[in-house]
Amino acid sequence: MALSGIQIYKLLPQTNCKECGFPTCLAFAMKLAAKQVELSACPYVSEESKALLEESSAPPIRLISLKSDGYEVKAGNEVVMYRHEKTFYNKPGLFVKIKTSSPEADVKTLAQRIQEYRVNYVGIDLEVDGIALEDDTNEGEKMKNAVKAVRSVCKKPLMLFATSAANLEPALTELNGESPLIGCATADSWEKFAELAKQYKASLAVMADNLDTLAELSEKIKGKGVEDIVLVPHGKNLGHELILQTQIRRLALKSNYRPLGYPTLAFCQTHAQMAQAIAKYAGFLVIDTFAEELAYPLLVLRQNIYTDPQKPIQVQPGLYEINNPQPTDPVLVTTNFSITYFSVANEVEGSGLPAYLLVADAEGMSVLTAWAAGKFDAERIAKAVKAVNLDAKVTRKRLVLPGAVAVLSGEVESELPGWEIRVGPREAVDIPKFYKQVLQAN
Ligand code: SF4
Questions:
Q1: Which among 78, 190, 313, 406 is least buried, having the fewest CB atoms inside 10 angstroms?
Q2: What distance in Å separates the CA atoms of residue 207 and residue 267, rounded to the nearest whole number?
Q3: What pLDDT, on a 0 to 100 scale, did the predictor assign at position 51?
Q4: Closest by CA position to 150, among listed 136, 173, 171
Q5: Does 376 contact ligand 1 (Cβ within 6 A)?
Q6: Ligand 1 within 6 A of CB of 20
Q7: Confidence of residue 1 (pLDDT cuts 50, 70, 90)
């Protein structure tokens, strides 16, 4: 059970020595109760108190890490129910299922596509995280051969699933030094799976269709010395899955209920299941099929949900050259919010028209938000022009402001004497038309 700040304080040395960085032991205790500091910051806690406090100060959802050669996928350590309360930290690992009955050549081809798949979204590289092998033949050798086939072309972390733990052991001998996930342990099979997980230092997925059984199983497995547990709540339908996932998160965070304080895994067949699992609250997803056109929206959705809402995604302020501009070509201005930048840059690039894109530092905000917050004004735009020495780069001094901040044009003219200030369209999609009809005509 979580201890209150006062209960924690009673277990601290109460000398107020300040070595932890807080003025008093009570202040440190309050931060510890809120899980905002680590117990190790106080070097003077007795061993007896430490044992009591470590249990209390452990994260409400255990951090689980799957590792392979050069790759790591983490889940857990989340601290809020809703993203806007703080942020979600560890993006749910996206794993693609491959059945062990598949011909070796097909396994290799798919594994290679997964290894090589990479897509850029607003300057961020997005990738699928790993492969989940499912034993659908009930033959340990087939699983072992599938692991070998995957490892010949793909280094990403693995999950190994079988109904019998014995069918996983030959494959695990192939994964020396890795930290895979195995499963799924059930009420009937958990002991064998727990022994295997302990022996091979694997994380263990535990499946049940209700929370009581999941909690009971996780406690039994922990009692066998396996702490890296992943819960698989098996719902009857989409709504039931949402209820189970939400209750697990709520019990872990709000009640600090340790038997359910683990990340979850969702097996997903439909797009709705996948989107729901990303939003609420899977730590790992296993999807049945892999297609680039499916992976992209899933990865983008995941990226958007797991972005810190208080830290907009930004690009580096500065001058970007698009389609090899010449000194007579126009300069378009925008802010350094990634999505704004890429919307404008992609439209200009796609049109084939040459232009300079001047990205002003607006603390990562979009045009209108930044203007409303006083972060994108005439002074900042003029400063951006001077910072990149634009006067020396262009012979025809034309600066195109975003249409949404047309109101700034007079002030920018005053800040930048000698420059011709134009007001562009409000939407990036209209830039090519504006360029051809207005900029090329004059
Ligand atoms: S380091 Fe420990 S003893 Fe010193 S003030 Fe902090 S909590 Fe108290």
A1: 406
A2: 11
A3: 85
A4: 171
A5: no
A6: yes
A7: low
Ligand 1 close to Cβ of residue 23 (< 6 A): no
Is ligand 1 within 6 A of the CB of residue 303? no
Do residues 304 and 275 touch, judged by C-beta distance below 8 A? no
Instruction: Please give the number of the atom of ligand 1 that sits closest to the Cα of 13.
Output: 3
Q: Is the minimum distance from the CB of 19 to ligand 1 under 6 angstroms?
A: yes
> Residue 72 sits in a domain of what CATH number?
3.20.20.20
Residues 250 and 364 in one domain: no
CA distance 26 to 440: 69
Q: How confident is the model over 272-289, as pLDDT tens digits? A: 999 999 999 999 999 999
Best residue among 18, 24, 28, 36 to mutate for probing ligand 1's pocket (most ligand atoms within 8 Å of CB) is: 28
Peptide bond between residue 257 and the one before it cis (omega within 30 degrees of 0):
no
pTM of the model: 0.80
Residue the block writes with tokens 């290894």: 115
**Bridge partners for 231 per DSSP:** 206, 264
Q: Is 37 in the pocket of ligand 1 (CB under 6 A)?
A: no
Instruction: Decide: helix, strand or coil at residue 247.
Output: helix
Query: Does the Cβ of 28 fall within 6 Å of ligand 1?
Result: yes
Structure-token pair, residue 387: 């910072």
Q: What is the pLDDT of residue 38?
A: 80
Atom of ligand 1 nearest to the CA of 23: 5
The verdict on 82 and 219 lying in the same domain is yes
Ligand 1 centroid from CA 7, angstroms? 15
Q: Cα–Cα distance between 47 and 248 in angstroms, integer?
A: 32
CB 305 within 8 A of CB 274: no
Residues 36, 73: one domain? no
Residues 284 and 363 grouped into a single domain: no
Residue 49 domain boundaries: 5-57
Residues 6+ apart with CB under 8 A from 431: 332, 344, 347, 348, 351, 424, 425
Query: Using CA atoms, how far apart are residues 114 and 117, in angstroms rounded to an integer?
Result: 5
CA angle 201, 206, 207 (to 5 degrees): 155
